[in-house]
């Protein structure tokens, strides 16, 4: 190879490295998994001057899925894919370059219309498959089979590391929230149980003294029944073992006591 060609290749590599550094700086600057998933797609489009990008994540990865949902869900450029969908892409550990991709090549992740070429970058963390990153360009020359994929491999490795690290942080937050909710629920049930018991017993005595068939006695019995319903609620609060929320007002959420008290062991963090 001539000196001019070597210098041109070195300049191209330097330019690609600067792009990779920009993407890495963005990932390092993200405050959490939600910000990463919502913003990385546009960052890749701008830094690499791409037509379209897509991220397919392994739907069967329970830990990753729980972390993503806790962080606010997927960004618009992302989607969940089951193992069969990922298998159909025919990926191993190395990026695959495709010229004029059709729906069967990238359609599981992005729309192939208008793409001249695409790079499919598998995402792995050890033996754990996380998904695939797809980079699509209008030019058929951008991602030709046979081109060096070193920088694509590095991009995939950095994204995989970021996903695993941020998912771990998100799950730690989930565990902390769950512990706080369980402790608060236990304390609330304990503090409510004694006065509620005193209230129920007092109403029973008052009903007997007033006469269960008297107008006052009948009203007292209805009050006692409502107090017993409160007792059932206190028991559900005592059984809370998971952090599960439901919509309340506007964008607010509250703990779903019924669901949280009936959570299976798998739902407990």
Write the layout of secondary structure elements.
Blueprint: H1 3-29, H2 33-48, E1 52-58, H3 62-70, E2 78-81, H4 83-88, E3 96-99, H5 103-106, E4 117-125, E5 128-137, H6 150-210, H7 215-238, E6 245-247, E7 253-255, H8 257-261
Parallel strand pairs: 1-2
Antiparallel strand pairs: 1-5, 3-4, 4-5, 6-7
Helix pairs in contact: 1-2, 1-6, 3-6, 6-7
Number of helices: 8
User: CATH homologous superfamily of the largest domain?
Assistant: GAF domain
Helix content: 55-70%
The number of domains is: 2
What are the defining features of this structure?
5-stranded mixed sheet; 8 helices; alpha+beta; two-stranded antiparallel ribbon; 269 residues; 2 domains; single chain; Beta-Lactamase
Describe the structure concisely for a colleague.
The chain is of the alpha+beta class and 269 residues long. The protein contains eight helices and seven strands.
Structure description:
By secondary structure, this protein is α+β, with helices and mostly antiparallel strands. It folds into two domains: 3-171, Beta-Lactamase (2-Layer Sandwich), CATH 3.30.450; 173-267, no CATH class. Helices cover 57% and strands 15% of the residues. The strands form two sheets. Strands 2-1-5-4-3 form a five-stranded mixed β-sheet. Strands 6-7 form a two-stranded antiparallel sheet. α3 (62-70) links the parallel β1 (52-58) and β2 (78-81). α3 (62-70) packs across α6. It is elongated. 28% of the residues are buried. The mean pLDDT is 88.
């Amino acid at each position: 190879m001539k000196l001019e060609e070597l210098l041109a290749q070195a300049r191209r590599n330097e330019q690609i490295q600067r792009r990779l550094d920009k993407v890495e700086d963005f990932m390092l600057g993200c405050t959490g998994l939600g910000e990463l998933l919502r913003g990385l797609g546009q960052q890749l489009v701008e830094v690499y001057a791409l037509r379209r990008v897509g991220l397919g994540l392994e739907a069967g990865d329970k830990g990753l899925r729980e972390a993503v949902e806790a962080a606010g869900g997927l960004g618009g450029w992302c989607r969940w894919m089951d193992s069969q969908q990922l298998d159909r892409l025919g990926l191993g550990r190395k990026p695959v370059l495709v010229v004029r991709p059709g729906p069967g090549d990238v359609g599981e992740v992005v729309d192939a219309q208008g793409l001249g070429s695409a790079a499919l970058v598998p995402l792995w963390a050890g033996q754990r498959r996380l998904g695939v990153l797809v980079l699509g360009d209008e030019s058929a020359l951008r991602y030709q089979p046979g081109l060096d994929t070193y920088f694509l491999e590095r991009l995939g490795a950095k994204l995989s590391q970021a996903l695993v690290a941020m998912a771990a942080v998100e799950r730690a937050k989930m565990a902390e929230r769950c512990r706080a909710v369980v402790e608060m629920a236990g304390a609330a049930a304990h503090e409510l149980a004694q006065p509620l018991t005193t209230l129920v017993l007092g109403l029973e005595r008052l009903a007997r003294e007033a006469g269960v068939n008297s107008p006052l006695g009948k009203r007292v019995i209805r009050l006692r029944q409502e107090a017993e319903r409160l007792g059932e609620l206190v028991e559900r609060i005592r059984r809370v073992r998971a952090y599960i929320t439901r919509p309340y007002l506007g964008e607010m959420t509250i703990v779903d006591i019924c669901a949280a008290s009936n959570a299976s062991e798998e739902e407990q963090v």
